[in-house]
Amino acid sequence: MHILFCPDSFKDALSAEEAAHAMARGAARAATDLHPLICPLADGGEGSLDALIAATGAERRQQTVLDALGRPRMAAWGWLADQRTAFIELAEASGLQPLTEQERDARYTSTYGVGQLFLAALDHGAEKALLLLGGSATNDGGAGMLQALGARLLDSQGQSLPPGGAALADLATLSLEELDPRLGKLDIDAAVDVDNPLLGEHGASAVFGPQKGATPAQVQQLDQALGHFADIAANVLGRDDRDLPGAGAAGGMGFAAHAFLGATLKPGIDMLMQQAGFDTLLAQADLVITGEGRLDGQSLSGKTPIGVARAAAGQQVPVVVLAGSLGDGWQACFQEGVTAAFALADGPMPLSDALPRTAELLEARCENLIRLWRAARP
């Protein structure tokens, strides 16, 4: 029996690789003839770098950068030397998780550190980069990244803008003349797990700003500042990308990556599956088991279990999702190729109790699942 174990990470509990091995351990208790196929996945958000490194054997490198609040931080990135390809995860440099609740303020957080990771990749001779968007603490439309890469963002007095999305309201001049010329030869794919535009009620500020510390008044302030930035960018570039699906990803980094760096925005799960050789593994599988921390109606926008189910449906391979919790609208996953979905908890328990038991719960669910699968098969 060949089973493909391809979960995303379980936030604050297990990496995707750890989750996949926990699943395989549980399944092995119920099937002595098990041939596990391990394929850790992610959708472009936090944990995507780890999943890519595990899937491709890329070298993990470290670079000192400035975090979202301008403090020195060691950030990891991936390097495939034979392919001259860099893996850059935004959350490593400008992520939300390292900040305390009190430190989260989308008006002032910056993506400058992401630009520093790009410079490190260029210094290593990168010809291609996979930019992993998600888990950001920022709402600056990628302005900080552009400043790190040499762009000049000036106010009406000719002074450089301070960090953060709120400062974009004062932008008077945007100059790309000193942007690092090596970027012109860098082929960039940006992995997104949402399809939000840059602005408006479905945009970066309104949808994601509150989780980054923005009050309703600050959401409006940030949206207006991003709109002003988009206006000036359109004049400089001769085109307007604010309505591009995915432009609002990671506080507007999708917009900056596409508009200024020429990046192609792709669903993160599709990009990760391609890098991991998912189709080759799927062709061998009798059953697919995937999962992540939460499955709900929002998962259909591009989360890992849905991307896996859509791919498996084309090969008529059944897919089971194991999730930390099942939220509103999770039943819609059945229309996307999911065969069945289960929550992990074996009884009422607070999250603080469930997180340390995630591996144990995954093992138990997989054991029971394979026992049922074996009994149901001719």
TrEMBL record:
Pfam families named in the record: Gly_kinase (PF02595)
UniProt xrefs under PANTHER family: GLYCERATE KINASE
UniProt-listed Gene3D superfamilies: Glycerate kinase, domain 1, Glycerate kinase, domain 2
Domain of life per record: Bacteria
GO annotation terms (biological process): organic acid phosphorylation
Family according to the record: Belongs to the glycerate kinase type-1 family.
NCBIfam families reported for this sequence: glycerate kinase (TIGR00045)
Single GO term (MF): glycerate kinase activity
Protein name per UniProt: Glycerate kinase
UniProt entry keywords in alphabetical sequence: Kinase, Transferase
Source organism of this protein record: Vreelandella subterranea
